[in-house]
Structure formats: structure tokens, C-alpha cells
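hi! just following up on the protien thing from before. the input was this:
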Amino acid sequence: MPESLTRWNFMGFAHTKDLKMGQISEEVVTQKELMVMPNMPRFFRENDKMTLSVKVNNVSDINIKGNSSIVFFDPVTQQEITGLFLGRFPNEQEFSVEQGKNTTVDWQIKIPEGMSAVGVRIIAESDKHSDGEERIIPILTNRMLVTETMPLPVSKTGTTEFTMTKLKTNNSTTLRHHRYTLEFTNNPAWYAVQALPYIMEYPYECAEQTFSRYYANILATHIANSDPKIQRVFELWKNTPSSEALMSNLEKNQELKALLLEETPWVLEAQDENERKHRIGLLFDLNRMSKESSDALNKLQKQQKYNGGWAWFKGMPESWYITQHIVTGLGHLDNLGVTEIRKDNKTWNMTKKAIEFIDGEMLQSYKDLKKYCDDKCMAKDNIGYMQIQYLYARSYFIDDVPMNKSTSEAFEYYKAQAQTYWKNKSFYMQGMIALALYRFDEKEVPAKIVASLKEHAIYSEEMGMYWKNESGYYWYQAPIETHALLIEVFDEVADDQVAVEEIKVWLLKQKQTQDWKTTKATAEAIYALLLRGTNLLSDDSMAVIQVGDMTIDPENDPSIKTEAGTGYFKKAWDGELVKPEWGDIKVTKKSNTVSWGAVYWQYF
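and the predicted 3d structure came back as:
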């Protein structure tokens, strides 16, 4: 019989072999003559006071007198803790209930702090009858976990001071400290290197992705060979694949999150990034990178058409845009000092053919314009995104492939257009114009563009220097590529290293917990961050951080484990150790590289 106390209908049917039949129907009642029926809440909350009522039901044909009792116990240890809930009140009470009626028994209780659940056992018994019920009820905390955060962006040598005012001036009488956490990344430029596998392993075979694989492998080889310190980091990654350096940034600080990572929509992104990072050690193998770059170069040469252009995919017509993108990428590698671009005959011949193709496309656009334009029309703004990209791509190889007379005429026209109409172009296009004209020995307009860019820039202690421009679907609306190019502008045209470092902060901030979205964006960001050479990566100096009266020196403290390359570390203290003076933080750096960190103060 099921345990429910209710009325049941019983029906039976029987027959013999010679089809004699019979049936029965009866009513069955499952009940106890004395029943305890508590009115329990679904949960308790700390410090609540309440009346706990229990109904005692008598369905017998006599009056019943007896005792009722309530017992509270720890559901884990089974130890009785009734006194914590009832205080001075007794846990037993007498009851008297007439036949066929019910009565109530009440207890005044107060819910204590510090428990997650409690067991409640209620019993009513007389001489001949007894009943009881037991339940486990959760206890919700009356406190809220609050996480106060303060970023620690540092972009200069010396000591930078920070103050967490809420911790320093706190005078609450009910606050209870939970945890204080410090994390710091000494050299975030390594995030650019950690992004290389993204473009090394992108699966598609279009010309852009093939070039990206070549770009990533040959750049990684160049980086690894540039400094023994950098090569040692690659070896560490390869030999310790379980290192925290290879974990997704989303997975490093789960204890600081109110929700578990597994319960958020970013879990797939984190797992994917974690998977890619675990392959980094294998990807940065010099022999493998040499083979992969050679394979990608051979594919790229096969994809190049007879006239020097590349199509997006096999079977499509040549694309002026994608060819200029590849020429620009080859220019980036050449500018970074990757000698294979000019010394390898296959690569250099491929580059020159591509330059001749984009010269022809630019000349054709000029001829088409002249066909439908008179002198008045020609003086108007006729320079578009493709012509500006052409000037920028051509500026890397301006003296390497000579132009004929017709091409020079078209080139000079669009160069003059860029000088005249730069003001109504986007920040991305203005940056390309500034770099191209500067390399063509036109200094006045690039200086004006730099001044204008500075006026439109937004400055933030945490985010660095950046520009708000309309992002969209088209290549010339991409924010990552825009900021990567503007790093090149301020480095080459303005020689303003303060601005360069400030823009790097914004660019690296976009990589803190996410990808740079596309292979093209990733390639451009890596180029911009490594523009000043690989000495940025070889810097392994550690910041010394003063928290109140404590000194955290990861370089000389064996208890602090730092990541290879990034120099990331994290240290946490339990709540009972936290002091108000920990609101004062000083970060002292020896090098002039971008670094960042944060402190997290958690309390109830």
C-alpha cells in the first residue's frame, strides 16, 4: 500500500477456465488514528523569528491525551542542537484532542547563524498511539557576498599608488571579511604570442587563412630565434602542458565569481580557448613551425594567379582587397625584420607579382574615373577605401617595384586626394593615409592627422588610449584593426611612445577574457604589439607590490608561482587576516612595459 494517507478504491476480477466470472469492489482507507501534520516552510533564513505550528489530528472514536516534542539536529553529524533554536523554551508540550477533531501545538523558534541546513523531528504520542515526521530544511544566509574590485593598470617605471577607499575607510559593525585576492600580469604582451595558434590552426583554405597560417608560423619562428629567453619560455610551455599559463583567463578566477563558470554562456568559449592554449607548447616547436610555414607558402604560391592577384577561394576572380591585405601582411613581416621576405627568392618574386597586380587595379580605377569625370569632377573627393589601402600597402615597398608613367600619374592623383580629403575619413583610413604619406616624404599632413587623432582620443587609467568609432560588418569598420594600425601611426609618424603604450593597453584589454574575434584582427594586433621588437617579450622583470605593510615580491618569494612568459601570479588571504590598511597598494616596476592587475575584496 502506498504511504499516502487517503481513501483508495480496490477492484478485483476473476474467472475460471469454463468462463465463470466474478468481481469485487471495496473501499480502503489508509490512515492513522493519531496523525502529526506539521506546517513546515520550504526554507529558514538566518536570524528569523517564527512560530512553528503543528496540527495533531484524531480520527479515532475516543479522546486522546499525550505529549508532543520537537527536536532539531545537525543533518550531517545527527547531533542534537535543539537549544540553538528554542533557547529557554521547552521542547515538549502536552496536548488533548477530542475524537474526530484536531488541535495545534506551537513552538517559538529563532534561526541561528552559520548553518546551511537543519533536521527537524516532531513526535506526538499517547499511551496507545504515536506518530512523527522528520524533514531536512535548508537555512539561507541573511548576508550577501559583495565583491569590491580595483584594477591596477601600470604603464611606466617607478612606483604607482592605488587606494581602495571602501576598504580603507570601512567602519561597518556587521561586515564580515571573506577573502582578499591580488592578481598581477607582469608582461601581457605574451598574450599576443598565445594568440598565434588561433591563426596557425584556423581550418579554412581561402587565401586569407592560408596567408594567416604562413604569417603566424614564420613570425613565431622569428620570435623564438630572436632571444634565448623567449625560446626557454616556449620550451617550458611544451614540457608543462598543464601549466596555468595555458588555462583560459575565464577559468583562472572561478572563486571570485558569484556563478560557476559551468553555469554561464562563456563556458564554451573558455573551454575552446583552454584547448587551444594546451596545444601552444606543441605548436611552438621550431621544426614544426618551419615545415608549416613552408607548406603554407607553397599553397599561397599555388593560389596566386598568373597576373599576381589572389582570389578569396579557388575558382573565384582575383580580389583587389585580399591581394592588398596579403601585400600589407608581407610588409608587416618585412618591417618586423623577418628576413625571409626578401632573402627567399620564391617569397620575394610572389611579393613583387602581387605589387604589380595592385598597381594595375589602382591604375584601372583611375582610368575608370577619368572616363566619366571632367576636371571639376576630378577635383572632388574620389578616393575610397581601396585606394587608401593601396597607398598604405604600397608604402612598404615603394622603392622595390618601379612604376611606369601611367601608374605614376594615377598614384600621384590618389596621393594628392589623400592629402586633401583625409578629414572626412574614418580613424582607420586616416591612420593609413598618415603612414603612407609619411613614407612618401610628405610630413605636413601626417602631423595634422596625428594631432587630430589625439584630439578625438579617449583616455582612461584602466583602458588606456582609444577611439570610439562605429563598428560594423566591413573590413574598414573593424575596431581591433583600427587600434593596431594607430599604434603603428604613433610609433612611426609621431614617435610618441607614451601614446603607443597607452593604445597597447586598450588592445591587450580586449584580449583579457576573449579572442580578437577574427584571424585578420589577431594578425594585425600581434603585429602592432610586437612592433617595437621582441625585447618586449624578453623582459622578465617582476613588479614588487606593497599591500598595506606587506611586500609581495614574486621574484624572491618561492611560495608564489608565476606563469612563464606573462609573469602572471595570484595570491589570496582569508578574511580574518584582512586589515583596513590593505586598501593602500603600491606597485613598483623596473621596466617601461604595460602591466596590469587587480585586487578583489570579498565580504559578507
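The first helix runs from residue 82 to 86.
DSSP finds 21 helices and 20 strands in the chain.
cheers
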